[in-house]
Write a structure and sequence with these properties.
Blueprint (H helix, E strand, L loop, with lengths): L2 H25 L11 H12 L3 H18 L6 H24 L5 H30 L3 H4 L6 H29 L10
Helix pairs in contact: 1-2, 1-3, 2-3, 2-4, 2-7, 3-4, 4-5, 5-7
């Protein structure tokens, strides 16, 4: 496959994966009312791993933000989400490029660690952005997130990151296998 075809296929896959992630995010029930995999993040990171460029980071994170606004949710929570999606996508890009440069040993475990760390970054940036915007702009609706208490927020963030560790490995392995290494570094 020539480079132009791969690039156009990658551009086609990005919105498909982003929409799939958003739909799965909407229909997946939570555990204990607060914990569930973050499919929108998982597919965002997958899109970045398919084409690890800065342009792809902004395209994919922009699509996640846009589809989140279209598919629902309280619009007041979309602004902090825009920060967390963009910054976690950048972190994913940097971590993925680093992993590609080092030894291929335990590659899938490293992919899982990228998903875990990028999801942690996303959660922490989101909570910080909610607090900062809620406090500075006096938006009480944003501050409702903190009624759960910081320990519950931290448990939620770590649990989601833990779940995304395994989800990321599964997605990476699945796309790598189905595409026979065409889009991702092939793993066996």
């Amino acid at each position: 496959m020539n480079q132009k075809n791969k690039s156009s296929n990658t551009i086609t896959l990005t919105p498909i994966f982003i929409i799939l992630g958003q739909i799965l995010n909407i229909i997946t029930p939570s555990i204990a009312g607060i914990i569930r995999p973050d499919f929108s993040l998982a597919f965002l990171f997958l899109c970045i791993m398919i084409k690890p460029t800065l342009k792809q980071v902004f395209l994919a994170s922009g699509l996640v933000i846009l589809t989140s606004m279209i598919l629902g949710g309280n619009p007041i929570f979309q602004l902090p989400a825009a920060f967390d999606r963009t910054l976690s996508a950048l972190a994913c890009l940097l971590l993925y490029r680093l992993v590609l440069r080092i030894s291929p040993k335990l590659f899938l475990a490293k992919i899982g660690v990228i998903y875990f760390l990028a999801t942690l970054i996303s959660g922490c940036v989101y909570v910080f952005a909610v607090y900062l915007l809620g406090t500075l702009l006096h938006i009480s609706e944003l501050m409702v997130v903190f009624k759960m208490g910081l320990p519950v927020l931290l448990i939620t963030i770590f649990s989601t990151a833990f779940i995304n560790y395994f989800l990321g490995i599964l997605l990476y392995k699945l796309v790598s296998t189905l595409s026979k290494g065409k889009y991702l570094f092939a793993v066996s």
